[in-house]
Specification:
Helix content: over 70%
Structural class: mainly alpha
Order of helices and strands: HHHH
Strand content: under 5%
Radius of gyration: 15 Å
Distance between the termini: 16 Å
Length: about 130
């Protein structure tokens, strides 16, 4: 139940971020957001430096974005996004500029993970 809540929160938060950022989203991005926050939630529990959690979170988000892009954009042709005009892009699915954005977004994302963890464990303990 814990990861279902985290997955759902991630999907909703990412969907809202996309709506604010570009005015629309795609249902596949809700799945990506859920997966990303679930990975970050796991990483947030590791006893490692904060900066390493940030780097690992950004790398995980980039990996999810690349994997999803290869499926939804390249294989299925849904054209959910296309970074091919961005310098340094890989197959039009990821680019350095968005990798940096994922690094920045990882900071509040990890804070959200801590908040979720405290709410989940406070609720289950009480």
């Amino acid at each position: 139940m814990e990861f279902l809540l985290v997955f759902t929160a991630g999907g909703l938060v990412y969907g809202l971020m996309e709506l604010v950022w570009r005015g629309w989203t795609h249902w596949s991005m809700l799945l990506c957001g859920g997966l990303c926050l679930s990975i970050m939630y796991t990483l947030s529990s590791f006893d490692i430096a904060w900066w390493l959690k940030l780097l690992l979170s950004a790398a995980a988000i980039t990996w999810v974005e690349f994997s999803a892009g290869c499926i939804v954009n390249l294989c299925l042709g849904w054209q959910v996004w296309d970074y091919s005009a961005m310098p340094g892009n890989i197959l039009g699915q990821i680019c350095p500029q968005f990798c940096l954005l994922w690094l920045i977004v990882s900071a509040p994302g990890l804070c959200l993970c801590s908040l979720l963890r405290s709410l989940i464990y406070k609720t289950s303990a009480g």
